[in-house]
Amino acid sequence: MRYQGREVDIEGRVRLVMESALTARDRVGVQDFVLLENYNSEAAFIENLRRRFGENLIYTYIGSVLVSVNPYKELEIYSKQQMERYRGVSFYEISPHIYALSDNTYRAMRTERKDQCILISGESGAGKTETSKKILLYYAVTCPTNDHMPALGERLLQSNPVLEAFGNAKTFRNDNSSRFGKYMDVQFDFRGAPVGGHILNYLLEKSRVIHQNHGERNFHIFYQLLDGGEDDLLTTLGLERNPQSYQYLVKGNCPRLSSVSDKNNWKVVMKALSVIGFTEEEVQKLLNIIASVLHLGNTQFGEGEEGETYITTETKITNLTKLLGVDGSALGEALTHKKLTAKGEEMITPLSFEQAVSARDALAKAVYGRTFTWLVEKINQSLALKEEIYHSGKGCSVIGLLDIYGFEVLQHNSFEQFCINYCNEKLQQLFIELTLRSEQEEYETEGIAWETVQYFDNKIICDLIEEKHKGIISILDEECLRPGETCDVSFLEKLEDTLGGHPHFVTHKLANGKTRRVMSREEFRLLHYAGEVNYNVNGFLDKNNDLLNRNLKEVMCQSDNQILSHCFRKEEAIDQKRPEMAATQFKNSLTKLMEILMSKEPSYVRCIKPNDAKQPGRFDEVLVRHQVKYLGLMENLRVRRAGFAYRRRFEAFLQRYKPLCPETWPNWHGRLSDGVSTLVNHLGYKAEEYKLGRSKIFIRFPKTLFNTEDALEAKKPDIALTLQTSWRGYRERAKYQRIRRAVIVIQSGWRGMKARRRAKRRRQAAELIRRLIKGFIYRHEEFCPENEYFHDHVRYSFLKNLRKNLPKSVLDKSWPTPPPSLIEASDHLRRLHMRNMVTKYCHRVQPEWKKQMMQKVVASEIFKDEKDSYPQGVGRLFLDSRLEREQINLKVVQTLGSEKVQYAVTVVKYDRRGFKPRPRQLLLTNTFAVLVDRTKIKQRIDYAALRGISVSSLSDGMFVLHMPNEDNKQKGDVVLHCHHVIEVVTKLSMMASKVNYVNISPGSIRFVVSRGKEGFIDFVRGSELKVAKGKRGHLLVTAPQINTA
Ligand SMILES: Nc1ncnc2c1ncn2[C@@H]1O[C@H](COP(=O)(O)OP(=O)(O)O)[C@@H](O)[C@H]1O
Ligand SMILES: [Mg+2]
């Protein structure tokens, strides 16, 4: 629902409670307690937690501190996608998450190059270990990897199941409670890739090895081994599967857990061991030790008649000695006897039954505790930063993760709880100091006046515990070392003497009546910052002493199990100096831890347990209130809110709210601080509502911010529209630009190509012209390279030109003028061409035409230049005949018989005497010619007898056939006139083979009239043809002038 996460305020306006635009689901309560209107109200605080918890929103900020409520169920918020969501975003952009804190820490380390640490606190079962695992997972998944250490992330992750198997146990509060404190350094190279890790472990709860409270268990590894180990393995270790067979596992009467499978975890642990780099042999040795602890627990003692103690389970001891790799009898002796050195002499005294039992238990604790330390060392070796990276000079940055036992209040609180709670006091100190310090520093750097905050400083409690000579630890140590009868009660008395009257220390004796009723006489009460805790002094001295008999140490030094011989050093057995007491050791290691943490930039995760039943969805307000109180969350909030509820860097503030002011939207180009003040002025902030620092704006009341946020929400549709428009514009512009660029590329490519082509052509042309000119200059020289091209070109052009301009007909006499070098070839070609044309022409000529031609040739031979009418006559076709067949009388044809008429023409015959004209037909056959008068053949002229033919040189049609003189039968020469004289004469002369006998007379023709008598035909030129009798009996023929021009 959209209205979820909003509230209806007094004016009835719907108001956003959240500062950022997140999904509706995330808008439950406030994401940051700093924005709580009523920040002094614990109830409002818890209500906000409860509401968010109800929506599975388990994370909430107090400024930069992350508060986490254990959901006791798997949430879908730890996937890889979620990790990606949180990468590179700032706290306020997205819902609170452990990944946001992890990412911000990582980025701070990278950008500021400052070591970081994340302190995770909270009571047992609040989710500290889970949180630290989530952080590690985030880094392992999202950070780049280093080539030298590719599997480091995996090893870092795998160290967890191993440490949990050996260091975690089911407790009343938590099925997987860490029974040791852990500080883990993850080292990153300059590129931000994890390159190394180091673990510091604190105060393993060793007493758990020998004793567990009801409903609790020993360390997981024992149950995992018995449940998951293969039969063979258990046989070699001499173990049975049933945990109830082992004294050290039966105390809590809780062998199994419903929430975890020991069998599966066994597999996980074995795999993790191999990933980390444990050899099979090392694993075997480790399991030998685990088994030996179980065997040790089953070692029983009996009491002899004289009070001496002996081992009743002698058979079991062989297994034990084998597993521990020590001498059997020596171990037996050491378990029942004590070695003392008095006045330089060694004495061995038997132990009482109780002493033997506690010696055995001490050995079990020592063996397990030291093995655990060895395990951590071994893991550290595997995670160690490799030399080459360390020395690469580029320096590593570190993120430290502190997962340490939270404040613990049990029914019976002992030495361990004392230490744990002391540790939490120290962490609270650190927290106060660092939070306040950073707050103060921020005010200073931002140039804002500091306003003091009232808070409880727990230094007084720390001093109560750790002060030299006067502190509880000092008194405890002193009591342990004091010669004479000391016991836990004497320690309590000493405390009362020294610390009586301290406001945070109470005992039964010192207390008032009311308190006295709830305290036993063996208890002392400390008023911790987080609440009151009663500690029972029983066992304090022993646990602080943490002594192991010297002869047991000696036996263990001899072990051929390398792990044990590493854990129990020979020097230790010989060394007479007393080792440091447990509490002091712890104090020192804490001091060191504080130094480590102080040197780093801290981030905090405050874990809260919602109920004691480990149930999902249940929010026990009383329990939560208690934790909120002792975690100091309200104080934390108060410090954060002391001055201003909200602060943000100028750029972030401006970036978010700039749409609300026309001057800052869409972009502010001036100084950031000016932009912010323009913006807030526009929004109408009052002077008391905010302050501007150097780089941040501080807003005093959440209400101011909420109003701004509301305004932004209302403005959003406008912004969306603007964004949409500009995005579309941008997209289209980009598209257009892309197209335009492409077009230009194509265009320039094309133009370039064209220009290149043109240039090439020009270059070639210039070159050609140059060659031609040169050739032209050298054209008269001998053939040489300079004129070679020119000549070639000239010849080529001539031939090309010739090809186009060849004469089309034989009569066409045109021919292109050849260049000098081709004159000869040209002539040849010309001849060839002519011959070719002629041949072609000849092939084309038809037989009739050939005949015609031959006749014309003959005519030409005869008449050319001889007879005036020739030029006129030669142009005309010579016909096959001038008469149609029908025009020749049939009788004549019959008379001719087989002789075919080849040619017929009408002629005029002139009588030799009188020159009377008579029309006749002249018929030519192959051998003779006949003159026909209609039906009658008048005269036959055999060709053989023909003496010659005469014609004039003029244009008349007269011709004379000369007949033989001696032939009496002949009547003389025949004088004829025909309009086709050239044709007739040519044909006749050809048929008669008398071509050479045609004679052309210029002035007159003499002819035979009859035997011995001659006639003449005279020719003159006149205007028109006229045949008439002339002078002296001559025939006068006037021939017209033919204009030949
Ligand atoms: N973020 C979480 N998501 C789901 N379950 C969780 C989460 N944190 C804690 N738990 C549950 O709570 C149990 C106790 O958490 P753990 O981290 O071991 O507590 P602590 O280390 O503070 O004692 C875990 O075993 C797990 O079942
Ligand atoms: Mg834990």
From TrEMBL:
Keyword Isomerase assigned: no
Domain TH1, residue spans: 867-1041
GO molecular function, one term: ATP binding
Protein name: Unconventional myosin-Ic-like
Binding site for ATP: G122, E123, S124, G125, A126, G127, K128, T129
Gene Ontology biological process: actin filament organization; actin filament-based movement; endocytosis
Keywords, sorted A to Z: Actin-binding, ATP-binding, Motor protein, Myosin, Nucleotide-binding, Repeat
Family: Belongs to the TRAFAC class myosin-kinesin ATPase superfamily. Myosin family.
Keyword Nucleotide-binding: yes
Domain named Myosin motor: residues: 29-713
Subcellular location: Cytoplasm, Cell cortex
A cellular-component GO term for this protein: plasma membrane
Pfam family, one: Myosin_TH1
Region Actin-binding, annotated ranges: 590-612
Main location: cytoplasm
